[in-house]
């Protein structure tokens, strides 16, 4: 004889159904929590690398300012950031043999940065006035091998010049001395909010990530849990 389930039977079976649906939902929530955690860690790592690692690594991959022949050398000059603005900047010089193309890292390289009207920069004349001549050592740790780099502060916007003087090692011919000039443009300093846009947006990005994660968790909860309570 066919029987009908009573309300007591239905209520006693309901917790089992709830537990089953909850069991099926838990692995999905664990995966969602794990993915959210991984995403947050990647976001933080990229942000830290952008603040710490990128400027040093990109200094030798910035804005190409020019390339030319100077004596027995081929000289390439790049600058960071791109475009150049009032404030700190890094000028990097790559020097290669004109004939063989071999990179030279054993030279005495001096770089002078100044305004376009500075006689020493334009004509290669030693003298007073303008920015002082600064010796440039080999590329620092973390920079690309083979580059000579110097960090300067660009004080004003407008047209500027770079004078590069190359002196060989002691014992080499004086004919290996060379000098080359480049010109560049400096833009005004960026607005503070643009300069620190990454740091300003970082906490808002974390908040958005948290809200997204909470909504995903709420959407993944079984509907029966609310009925049970």
Summarize this structure as a short list of keywords or feature phrases:
40% helix; 229 residues; alpha+beta; 5 helices; Immunoglobulin-like; 4-stranded antiparallel sheet
Structure description:
This protein is α+β, with helices and mostly antiparallel strands and 229 residues long. It folds into two domains: 85 residues; 128 residues, Immunoglobulin-like (Sandwich). The protein has five helices and eight strands; from the N terminus they run αββββαββββααα. The strands form two sheets. Strands 1-2-3-6 form a four-stranded antiparallel β-sheet, with no helix packed on it. It has a four-stranded antiparallel β-sheet with strand order 5-4-7-8. β2 and β3 form a beta hairpin. The longest helix has 52 residues. It is elongated.
Give the structure's gist in a few sentences.
40% of the residues lie in helices and 28% in strands. By secondary structure, the protein is an alpha+beta fold. The strands form two sheets. It has a four-stranded antiparallel beta sheet, with no helix packed on it. It has a four-stranded antiparallel beta sheet with strand order 5-4-7-8.
Write the layout of secondary structure elements.
Blueprint: H1 7-58, E1 63-70, E2 73-80, E3 87-97, E4 108-115, H2 119-123, E5 134-136, E6 147-154, E7 158-167, E8 178-186, H3 192-195, H4 197-220, H5 223-228
Antiparallel strand pairs: 1-2, 2-3, 3-6, 4-5, 4-7, 7-8
Helix pairs in contact: 1-4
């Amino acid at each position: 004889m066919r029987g009908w389930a009573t309300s007591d039977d239905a209520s006693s079976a309901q917790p089992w159904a709830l537990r089953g649906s909850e069991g099926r939902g838990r692995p999905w929530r664990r995966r969602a929590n794990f993915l959210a955690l991984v995403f947050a860690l990647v976001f933080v790592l990229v942000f830290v690398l952008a603040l710490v690692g990128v400027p040093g690594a990109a200094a030798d991959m910035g804005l190409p300012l020019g390339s030319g022949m100077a004596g027995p050398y081929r000289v390439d000059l790049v600058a960071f950031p791109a475009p150049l603005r009032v404030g700190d900047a890094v000028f990097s010089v790559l020097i290669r043999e004109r004939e063989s193309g071999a990179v030279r890292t054993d030279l005495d390289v001096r770089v002078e940065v100044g305004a376009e009207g500075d006689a020493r920069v334009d004509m290669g004349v030693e003298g007073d006035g303008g920015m002082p001549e600064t010796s440039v050592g080999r590329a620092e740790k973390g920079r690309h091998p083979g580059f000579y780099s110097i960090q300067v502060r660009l004080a004003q916007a407008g047209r500027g010049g770079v004078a590069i003087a190359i002196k060989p090692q002691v014992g080499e011919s004086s004919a290996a001395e060379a000098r080359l000039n480049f010109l560049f443009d400096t833009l005004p300093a960026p607005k503070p909010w643009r300069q620190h846009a990454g740091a300003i947006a970082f906490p808002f990005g974390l908040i958005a990530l948290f809200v997204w994660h909470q909504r995903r968790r709420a959407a993944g909860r079984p509907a029966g849990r609310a009925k049970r309570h």
